[in-house]
Amino acid sequence: MLQTRFTKLVGVEHPIVQGGMQWVGRAELVAAVANAGALGFITALTQPTPEDLTKEIARCRDLTDKPFGVNLTILPAIKPPPYAEYRAAIIESGITVVETAGNKPQEHVDEFKKHGVKVVHKCTSVRHGLSAERMGVDAISIDGFECAGHPGEDDTPGLILIPAAANKIKIPMIASGGFADARGLVAALALGAEGINMGTRFMATKESPIHQLIKEKIVANDERETELIFRTMRNTSRVARNEISTKVVAMEREGAKFEDIRELVAGARGKMVYATGNSDEGIWSAGQVQGLIQDIPTCGELISRIVREAEAIIRSRLEGMIASPAAQAAE
């Protein structure tokens, strides 16, 4: 068993996290992750109302008696969701760990901490990680440029970002972006993280509540099958390459503004991808890690395989590379 400061902080067996994913972070996936000894997050804003979130948390509790959390993403919007009501639903449901993401979550962090909820904040840079640490969060999740969703605007890959953050951040840190297997977990631990966060990899599992054809598409895709949209708007998002994302990138190159592409990138269309299995129906998130995903296991199979193989890499491959003094002398 691999124990880290993070596993002790949140009370799980394995240093593996299934982060919040819009339309994907539902009870059946989160419970499967929890039952396998890792930490899963229900995505709050996937639920249409705070009342629906309360019901989804209860549904997850019916499926597992292990710890799980809720993701609350704070994004700029013309008509923002009732964040305070979602926050209250999380607290009143007795959730003990929350993943926050997005802009200036200080008021949410303060309120969660007041009720004894542990907060893991998603960041895309060392400076934002340090800001979150000052804000009083318990841990951070640091997203490298490889990740699905929002990688920030610095374009710093995990191989640099994780150790750079580890040099300065004192609270536990989870590495995110580009993780799918035991090799990634061992690498993240070596770079200074206390575990890994996986999104795209958990989309391609038996319990993931998305269409089988999309799971198969993730397996078929290689590491080149993503696009970076909204680059020109300084709100970069890494999504699966398809007819729509390729068109959006081309339109941006021609100077398109958000109003020009609004209909193409509408969330309702992205939601339909997961419902219908038509990968060209809308924009949907996927990371470069698609190139490392070869199968569609259960969450239990995936997590136990990663932990088992990580222990083997540490014990056999890495330890085997250290020559004893006697062996060196014999040479």
Automatic annotation (TrEMBL):
PANTHER family: 2-NITROPROPANE DIOXYGENASE (PTHR32332), 2-NITROPROPANE DIOXYGENASE-LIKE PROTEIN (PTHR32332:SF20)
Classification via InterPro entries: Aldolase_TIM, NMO
Highest taxon listed in the record's lineage: Bacteria
A molecular-function term among this protein's GO annotations: nitronate monooxygenase activity
SUPFAM superfamilies: Inosine monophosphate dehydrogenase (IMPDH)
Annotated protein name in UniProt: Nitronate monooxygenase
Coiled coil, from the record: none
Keywords from the named record: Flavoprotein, FMN, Monooxygenase, Oxidoreductase
